Amino acid sequence: MQTLLVEIRDRATCIPAVALRLNASVPGPAGALLRRSGYDRSIPYTVLMPCSGGIDTAYDNPHAWGGRTLPVAHAYIHEHFQTLKDGDVIDVEFILGESVTKKSPEWRDEGHI
């Protein structure tokens, strides 16, 4: 299992979120438990959980969210998981071509480097 903490941004939106990559093909207990739970060993799954304190979570289905921000961000994270790192900005306006410049991380603006 791989874990990322990312900053999802859109118009007037900043959502800190945890993204998990679950892979049932890995050896050992993690893979065995995922396979026992029904995960297909040939597919990596991406789970997205906003850090809002609620229970909103989408399991490998970006369209389960509704709206625009989280479905676009979830699909992007799923496609680019291996190249993302903690603290990366998932800028929905940039992804959709609505802006030419990717937003900078809000946590940097707050001096938390």
Describe this structure in words.
The chain is of the alpha+beta class and 113 residues long. The protein has one domain (2-109). The protein is built from 4 helices and 5 strands. Strands 4-3-2-1-5 form a 5-stranded mixed β-sheet. Strand 1 (2-10) and strand 2 form a beta hairpin. The longest helix is centred in the middle third of the chain and has 12 residues, at 69-80. The mean pLDDT is 88.
Keywords:
113 residues; alpha+beta; 5-stranded mixed sheet; 5 strands
Beta percentage is: 25-35%
* Strand order in the largest sheet: 4-3-2-1-5
What does the average pLDDT come to?
Answer: 88
Number of domains: 1
Distance between the termini: 26 Å
Radius of gyration from the CA trace? 15 Å
Helices and strands in order, then pairings?
Elements (H helix, E strand, L loop, with lengths): L1 E9 L2 E11 L5 H8 L7 E7 L7 E2 L9 H12 L8 E3 H4 L10 H4 L4
Parallel strand pairs: 1-5
Antiparallel strand pairs: 1-2, 2-3, 3-4
